[in-house]
Amino acid sequence: MPIVLYRVDDRLVHGQVVIGWGKQLSAAFIVLVDEAVASSEWEQDLYRMGVPPEIELHFATVADFARRAAHWRADPRTGIVITADIGTMAALCRAAPPVPQVNLGGVHHKPGRRERLPYVYLTDEEFLALEQLAREGTEVRAQDMPGTVPVPLASLR
Length: 157
Hints:
The chain is of the alpha/beta class. Helices cover about 35% and strands about 30% of the residues. The chain is built from 6 helices and 9 strands, in the order E-H-E-H-H-E-H-E-H-E-E-E-H-E-E. The chain has a 7-stranded mixed sheet, sandwiched between helices. Strands 6-7 form a two-stranded antiparallel sheet. Helix 4 (about 60-75) crosses helix 5 and helix 5 runs parallel beside helix 6.
């Protein structure tokens, strides 16, 4: 199976990702793409504690992901890719196309952001970046859990 979920979630790897999405999708591996975490053994150890042994957890920068994307996409097992922010996901989409769909799953409140959904807060600049991704061919939608109805980007305006 290919990578079946590209998700933006500022909490990165946590129960909603591992249990909610991981079990539902039968994920065998997760690729956490984050420049800081990729260079921090200490942070990697923390994230490993939240993942059961049957799910492999890989850490990558955007450049690492671009180099290994074909490998992960060709893996016969199901995979998930996660970033903490929209900027990293946009860079990943451009560095390693194609990314058919991006899931906004947990983009929480920060100064300058406004609520679009209870679990998605965006600045106008972030929204424009997501619209640009959509124009480039990546479907963007919000969905916190597999059983909830996906919300198209246009509805987040």
